[in-house]
Design goal:
17 strands; DNA-binding; 44% helix
Length: 585
DNA sequence: GCCGTTTTCGGCCCGACTGTTTTCAGTCG
């Protein structure tokens, strides 16, 4: 059992305890333990013989260590089993619907015996929820909409989840001798926000036709396979326990490029590419680009060879959507897309003053290690009480600490890194901010964010944001739209108003790097560029580790055809950055 | 259930917002 599974089981147990109205502190212990387990770099299953090492992990005590030992050896644990006698596992899925919490799930179960989404939908449509306390027509309508949204999105997996699975599977495949390279293809390689299934392409001496069967057997016997769907000459398909379908193809080196091109897609890109090949008397398939007349192979080994043979510049996977990239590649006008190393600073992160885990200095040193030239410390303000948000007094004191660290590092590292004082203020219902202007005036970076967006009508949310960015101290609009409640389509309609006004005011809009925190999809990013918005790409890091988790965010930027010139924090120095932000009053 | 003790119990991030109330429970972050 791997750490991720252990973490998931502990987290699910916490949810079941919540439904069971258990001790909130006990519940939190399970959640904290789950989080701690997930962050471990060593597999706990290898430590169960040495429970003392488990106790060394913060958040894991005697009881939790026993739980983990039990989980690893039996696959479950007594408390979990006991709760599953009382409740159904499908109830955990109900918790994922917007507006559904443990109390409501418990009530639905006791009053209506509703334990899954289908039954809930039926009950809602029949008006049965109206008979329950605190549930009216509005709640019912919102719930039905939520169910609809949930169903539409749940068949796809988020890119970071998919990437994690891809990495784990790759590591297991890699153990077979004679495997050189494993590349995820499909929408994962193109950087889509979600992927339907996982395509893994594998090559190396072990994948040559005469010997490939042994490697195929190795893949088909991977321990994490839930259901084996198919096993062919060079392809294995299976699903994982979470229902993610994985297709692994083992291909000879000589045709790896053609396969990579073919399986990366998109479908529309490939169709257009094949049309172009035919015009040149060539044919393109998953094995090679070849002449139509005598099947002579023109290119197959690498993608670069194939594009070159079609008189095209190499097209990065993120652009392969048949939305103008072929024309640009033919005319040598493809953009020089932004890369990770172009990002010179990070302007949104938290420390242990609020809900982060590391100190100002630790964050700064991590940024230095990543090669950044400047960062802003933007802890939460008081409205986010659960994060121990800063009130005006504490915020001002925090600035002093940030400046002190900045001064220390300046002398220690000869100005290699600057640490700017900042704050992430919350936008209240009336669009005002929750700290005084006099406090904000002391900050270099003020990020304004809406945090309470439960069941908030989009129009009101939009008005709230529009009002907030009128505050002259706001220099960055943080995660510009709500995450859970607002559907993507709705965002596309309403975000344009926000982007327009932000652009007029010179307020930069933030693109958060981690998908879990990201709100601007590639379409919205393109929209932002169109309206001349300043864009900053941040991590919203709460730990030093998160400070490095920026690659998905970059992929998103690349999908939007953005170049270093489009992104504000590609400025080489803090000074240059600050002059490019909205001027302070 | 964890942790740190003024070491073996008592504390453990809590305010905003919504829908349904008519004083508040539940959800969210």
């Amino acid at each position: 059992m791997d750490n991720i599974t252990i973490a998931r089981l502990l987290d699910e147990t916490a949810s079941l305890l919540e439904i069971d109205a258990g001790d909130p502190f006990r519940i939190r212990s399970y959640r904290r333990a789950a989080e701690a387990v997930e962050q471990q770099t060593t597999q706990l299953s290898t430590l169960v013989a040495e429970p003392k090492q488990l106790l060394a992990i913060a958040g894991i005590g005697k009881g939790m260590a026993a739980n983990i030992v039990e989980l690893v050896s039996t696959g479950t644990m007594p408390l979990r089993e006991e709760l599953l006698q009382k409740y159904k596992p499908t109830m955990l899925e109900l918790l994922r619907l917007p507006g559904m919490g443990p109390k409501t799930v418990a009530l639905l179960w006791s009053a209506l015996s509703v334990s899954d989404i289908d039954a809930l939908e039926t009950a809602a449509k029949e008006g049965k929820l109206l008979e329950l306390p605190r549930m009216g027509q509005k709640f019912t309508d919102k719930l039905l909409k939520g169910i609809e949204d949930y169903r539409r999105n749940s068949s796809r997996f988020r890119i970071d989840d998919a990437r994690e699975h891809a990495d784990r599977i790759s590591a297991l495949i890699q153990t077979f001798p004679g495997i050189d390279e494993i590349t995820p293809a499909g929408s994962l390689r193109r950087g889509r926000e979600t992927v339907g299934d996982l395509d893994l392409l594998v090559t190396g001496p072990a994948c040559e036709p005469n010997v490939v069967s042994a490697a195929v057997e190795h893949v088909a016997a991977l321990p994490l396979i839930d259901k084996l769907l198919a096993k062919g000459q060079n392809k294995v398909s299976f699903t994982l326990r979470n229902n993610l379908q994985v297709d692994v193809r083992l291909l000879p080196r000589a045709s790896y490029g053609a396969a990579l091109q073919y399986f990366t897609g998109s479908k529309m890109h490939n169709v257009a590419l094949r049309q172009r090949a035919i015009k040149r008397g060539l044919t393109l398939n998953e094995y090679a680009l070849a002449r139509l007349d005598d099947n002579t192979i023109v290119a197959a080994r690498t993608e670069e060879d194939i594009y070159r043979a079609l008189d095209l510049d190499y097209i990065p996977p993120e652009l392969r959507e048949n939305s103008g990239e072929l024309e640009a590649a033919a005319n040598h006008t493809l953009p020089q897309l932004i890369t990770l190393t172009d990002i010179r600073g990070d302007l949104h992160m938290h420390t242990d003053a609020t809900d982060g885990r590391n100190t100002i200095r630790e964050m700064a040193e991590a940024a230095l290690a990543r090669g950044l030239s400047y960062i802003a410390i933007t802890d939460h303000s008081k409205n986010l009480a659960m994060t121990n948000g800063l009130d005006d007094t504490r915020a001002l004191a925090h600035i002093q600490r940030i400046r002190a660290v900045d001064a220390e590092l300046q002398s220690e590292h000869k100005g290699k890194i600057r640490v700017l004082p900042g704050i992430e203020v919350d936008i209240l219902a009336d669009g005002s901010l929750d700290l005084a202007d006099e406090t904000l005036a002391q900050m270099d970076i003020v990020v304004a964010s809406v945090h309470s967006h439960f069941a908030q009508p989009i129009e009101e949310m939009t008005q709230r944001v529009l009002r907030a960015i009128e505050n002259p101290y706001v220099r960055i609009l943080g995660h510009p739209t709500g995450r859970k409640v607002l559907g993507r389509e709705a965002i596309a309609v309403h975000i344009e108003q926000i982007l327009k006004r932000a652009s007029e005011l010179g307020v930069a809009v933030e693109h958060n790097a981690a998908p879990a925190r990201s709100d601007l999809n590639d379409l919205n990013l393109r929209l932002a560029k169109q309206h001349g918005c300043k864009i900053v790409v941040n991590t919203d890091a709460h730990t030093t580790a998160e400070l490095a988790q920026i690659s998905y965010g970059i992929t998103q930027l690349r999908r939007a055809w953005l170049t270093p010139a489009d992104i504000l924090n590609t400025c080489p120095t803090a000074k240059a950055l600050l002059t490019n932000l909205r001027p302070r009053p």
